[in-house]
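Practice problem: predict the structure.
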Amino acid sequence: MHKYKKGDKVIILDYNGKPQVPYVVAMIEDIIGPDRVRLFLPDHGCCLEFLYRLQPIDEETYEQCLKSVQHREKPLPSDLRMNIAAFAAEHPGRKDDIYSNFEFDKHFVSVIHSYSGRVQMFGEDFISEDVEFEYQYAVQGLKKTRKFFHELDESIPLLQED
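Answer:
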C-alpha cells in the first residue's frame, strides 16, 4: 500500500477500486490514523476517507481533473424571471419577437441544465456528440436571446462568457 503524506494529490475510488465517474480529486490535508486521512476537496470542503478508497495521482492529472470539476460546477444560467405579458406591453412593436425569444430562452436554459446534469452524472468524456452539439447550440442561442432582451431593458444581464 502507498505511504501517504500531507499534500499528496489523490483520486477517490468507488467500491470496486476504480476511479469514480466523474472523477473526484482531492488533496490530503491530514493523516488521521493508519487507515484514514482527511481530504481537502475542490469545493473547499473536507471529509474523512479510508486509504483503500484512494489512488495517488501526479500533479498534472490532478490539475486536469480539477479543471474538469470546476467546469462541471460553474454556475448555470437561470430563467428570465419576468412578467412577459407586461414586458411585451411596454414594447408593443416587438411583441411577437419578445414572445418567441422568451420561448427560445426557456428552451435553451432547459437544454443547458440537462447537459450539466448529464456531465455531473456521467462525466464530460461520456457525453455523446449529439448532446454536445445541442448544448453548444443552446449556449449560442441563449447569448442571442439575452442580448435581445438586454437591448430592450438594460437591467437584464447578458450571458457571461467562459
